[in-house]
Design a protein that fits this description.
- The chain is mainly α and 252 residues long.
- 77% of the residues lie in helices and 0% in strands.
- α1 packs across α7 and α5 crosses α6.
- The longest helix has 44 residues.
Length: 252
């Protein structure tokens, strides 16, 4: 289990695995319920709808390939499916995070207190209600960071051949980074660390954060398993915060 002074050389795979363990801790499980329910309703319903529509969307997308590139269709078809699932999974996981943000912040707060033995001030449900405006402002900051970059990648996908081949790879890398930003932000925000400072801190350990975000992204695309990924990712990111960032950035 992570501790405030534990080794900070663990990679992102370790913290993702820690998330699956920490989410089951006695005393923490009750804070998992609301993020879990929100994720099940939104992501579960969204994926059921998506798989019903893929049969219509893929042929329509492939129709934009010019005749001279038809020989690439066997490659572009699976890449198009992956790209759609990536965009779709990230969009609805972002929506779930937006709605569940206050509960995710509370989960991160309670877990950090458990791991460090030092609960944050004003923890609990009253602190949650008080912090809702600040938490939602932070979520819109993340959206403002995400949307222009996502739009550029979306436009790239409509470039026949080159764009359609490159876009899924870039989407995956971008999603990995954004999911790391999304989930690591909860403990950072609990300590009132600015969004810009948080991004700078994450870049110092970019390899581990990309590994963590890539695994979250992959598991978000897997039906059934993806229903539990939101609280697991919050717990894994909080463990990473405690090991790597707490000593430098925590409120004194």
């Amino acid at each position: 289990m992570p501790a405030g002074n534990s080794v900070s050389t663990f990679n992102g795979v370790h913290y993702f695995a820690e998330g699956w363990k920490l989410v089951r801790l006695p005393g923490i499980r009750r804070y998992v319920i609301m993020p879990l329910l929100i994720n099940i309703v939104l992501l579960g319903g969204a994926f059921i709808w998506l798989f019903q529509r893929l049969g219509q969307w893929i042929p329509a997308l492939m129709s934009h390939i010019p005749d001279w590139l038809q020989w690439l269709s066997y490659l572009l078809w699976p890449l198009s499916v992956i790209s759609i699932v990536l965009v779709f999974s990230y969009f609805f996981s972002t929506l779930a995070n937006l709605i569940a943000a206050p509960f995710c912040g509370l989960l991160a707060e309670q877990l950090e207190g458990r791991l460090t033995g030092t609960p944050l001030p004003e923890s609990g449900w009253m602190g949650l209600i008080k912090d809702i405006p600040r938490i939602m402002k932070r979520e819109f900051q993340k959206l403002g960071y995400y949307l222009p970059r996502a739009l550029g990648l979306l436009l790239l996908h409509f470039i026949p051949g080159f764009g359609q081949t490159l876009a899924p790879v870039l989407w995956f890398l971008f999603s990995a980074w954004m999911l790391s930003v999304q989930y690591c932000d909860y403990p950072f925000d609990n300590h009132k660390v600015s969004f810009q400072q948080m991004r700078q801190a994450l870049r110092q350990h970019k390899s581990a954060n990309m590994q963590f975000g890539a695994l979250v992204s992959l598991f978000t695309m897997i039906p059934i398993i993806n229903l539990a990924i939101l609280p697991v990712a919050v717990c894994g990111a909080t463990a990473m915060w405690v090991d790597r960032y707490h000593a430098q950035h925590a409120r004194r």
